[in-house]
Amino acid sequence: MNRLRTTRLFPAAPLAVLGLLASLSPCTRAQEAGYTFYVAPHSHIDIEWYWTYDQTVVMCINIMKHALTMMREDPRFTFTQDQMMALKPFWESLNTDDKAFLLRMVKEGRFELASGTYLQPDEAESDFEALTRQLYPALSWMETTFSTKINTVWNLDTYGHSIQMPQLYRKAGMKYFVFMRDAPPALADSIKSPFYWEGADGSQIL
Question: Model's pTM, two decimal places?
Answer without folding.
Answer: 0.79
